[in-house]
Design a protein that fits this description.
- This protein has a domain of 47 residues.
- 29% of the residues lie in helices and 16% in strands.
- It contains 1 helix and 3 strands; from the N terminus they run βββα.
- Strands 1-2-3 form a 3-stranded antiparallel β-sheet, with helices on one face.
- A hairpin with a 5-residue loop joins strand 1 and strand 2.
- It is globular and about 50 Å long.
- The termini are far apart.
- InterPro entries: HicB-like (IPR031807), TA_system_antitoxin (IPR051404), TTHA1013/TTHA0281-like (IPR035069).
- This is Type II toxin-antitoxin system HicB family antitoxin.
- It holds the Pfam family HicB_lk_antitox.
Length: 73
């Protein structure tokens, strides 16, 4: 299964990473690679919890990320 993850630099150092398809599924790491490995583990644990609770597993979906420009008046 493929899941979209969002990495953001943490002001105190390292990276925070989240999975928008699994609300509340977050992790962190000192490097991008470490953060990605940690979110994989968090995703697996979340999926195992859902399966144990007999809740439906989420369908992976495409998440689009873009930027917009705004001007302050």
């Amino acid at each position: 299964m493929n899941f979209t993850v969002i990495l953001e630099p943490d002001p105190s150092g390292g990276y925070v990473v989240s999975c928008p398809e699994l609300p509340g599924c977050y992790s962190q790491g000192e490097t991008v690679g470490e953060a990605l490995e940690n979110i994989k583990e968090a995703i697996l644990l979340t999926l195992e919890d859902l399966a144990d609770s007999r809740e439906p597993l989420p369908e992976p979906r495409q998440v689009l990320v873009s930027t917009v420009s705004v001007s302050l008046r």
